[in-house]
């Protein structure tokens, strides 16, 4: 389980996140939505121990990420903008991650096949397409067979087949009793994947609940999102 409680994060005088609280539960896909600059990335960075909270807590199974004994076996993460060394081969990138976390070498081949990179394993990462890079990032997140996945824009660069595959994969992953926290800008995709939705705007949570609760009274998740965060097609557009 992921528990964010009264979390605040400031960068100098700027408040990126203010008093954010929500829970991502086992057996469910929790969608994390917000406009650019809303505070999604800052929240995820604190959760994964990359930044320190200014106030509040971000816990994984009741512990801070940095206190987990085997982090990669508990949480698998894919953050937008994070990537491997371009000159390194895909298989080598995963191998050193596996070795540093005492994960058996066989798992590297398993995840490469799982994400559809078996034939591209020995190619240099610089030759990968954007979609292939996303698949490699997902493979790294899955190496430790974690009970929790934290994914930031995982379908970015994927073709329709890849998007369909990851949707099914995440649904099955959650159905097995695991926790998925998914950040994305794709409303249609989120509405077909998420069980619960958290919407953040200007550093604060504006609503959270089941997909049905958040979209109640609206024709779609997209319509609900813009009603909550400001309709770009409304007055002043």
Automatic annotation (TrEMBL):
PROSITE patterns: ABC_TRANSPORTER_2. Residues 2-227 form the ABC transporter domain. One of its GO terms (molecular function) is ATP hydrolysis activity. The keyword Chaperone does not apply. Keywords: ATP-binding, Nucleotide-binding, Transport. The keyword ATP-binding applies. It comes from the Bacteria. Pfam families: ABC_tran (PF00005). Coiled coil: none annotated. Belongs to the ABC transporter superfamily. This is ABC-2 type transport system ATP-binding protein. It comes from Nonomuraea jabiensis. The lineage of its organism: Bacteria, Bacillati, Actinomycetota, Actinomycetes, Streptosporangiales.
